[in-house]
Amino acid sequence: MDNKLIKKIRHELKSQVDLDYKKGCENFFIEKIVCYGVRTPLVRKISQKYFREEVKFLDKKDLFSLCEDLFKSDYNEEATIAIQFLSLSFNKFEKKDFKVFTQFLNKYINNWAKDDDFCTHVLGVMLGRHPELISELKKWTKSKNMWVRRASAVSFISSDRMSVGKEVGYVARDNLKDVFEIARTLMKDKEDLVQKGYGWMLKVAANFHQKQVFDFVMENKKEMTRTALRYAIEKMPRKLKIEAMKID
Predict the structure, then answer these.
(1) What are the tens digits of pLDDT across the range 215-241?
(2) Residues facing 34 on adjacent strands
């Protein structure tokens, strides 16, 4: 892959650094992160600019190579750009490319911001188009990598902007049985961010299936952490929230 494009992207990122924002970002994450300190709206503008000017003309092999080079740097902003390049290129992808996305997830996704962005804009779109891949996500619930386990749930929280009529959460909407199966598997996960991930998945599913999700929560609330439970019922009516939070 020609490094000229990456050099231009990095030069532009460095020109937009906000040191106060950088300090705030570094303090916001529990885990140590690597970042320039560029605000996300600016990062997305940079990625859109280079996508229009150069990236959209790349073949798939060169696109994957470019994105991997960006992921390898470990900078949050470069990961955001790589993810947006992939998201904007979905007309190039086939079911078999899920293997490449899985490799990116395992090798380069190492905090919740990267995880959520990658899941909702790349993995979730692939699931929407190829729901038979959900069986692969069920295997991820047993991964030693907590970000892969979180991805098994958060990938259900997706919107496919390239498909008319698709709203946020359509994967969770259409695959409720799988949502519940993954939630049960992750229910006793020791990582707080994994618990929040499956709780978030349930919350999105409840936008379409409130009764079923409420019944699931009531059936399993003794096993669920309070964190996951609160996430799951966050948008439910107050009466249902009170009922779900009662300690038997």
Answers:
(1) 999 999 999 999 999 999 999 999 999
(2) 75
**Residue 244 CB neighbours (<10 A):** 17
Q: Give the whole-angstrom CA distance, residue 129 versus residue 161.
A: 12
**Rounded CA gap, 228 and 237, in Å?**
17
Alpha-carbon distance of 141 to 185, in angstroms, equals: 7
Mean pLDDT is lowest, of 28-32, 70-74, 122-126, for 28-32
Three-state secondary structure readout of 89-129: CHHHCCHHHHHHHHHHHHHHCCCHHHHHHHHHHHHHHHHHH
Please enumerate in sequence order all residues whose Cβ is within 8 A of that of 115, keeping only pairs 6 or more positions apart, or say none.
Answer: 109, 147, 150, 151, 154
pTM of the complete model: 0.93
**Does residue 71 contact residue 56 with C-beta atoms inside 8 Å?**
no
Contact predicate 187/220, CB 8 Å: yes
Nearest in space to 5 (alpha carbons), one of 67, 79, 60: 67
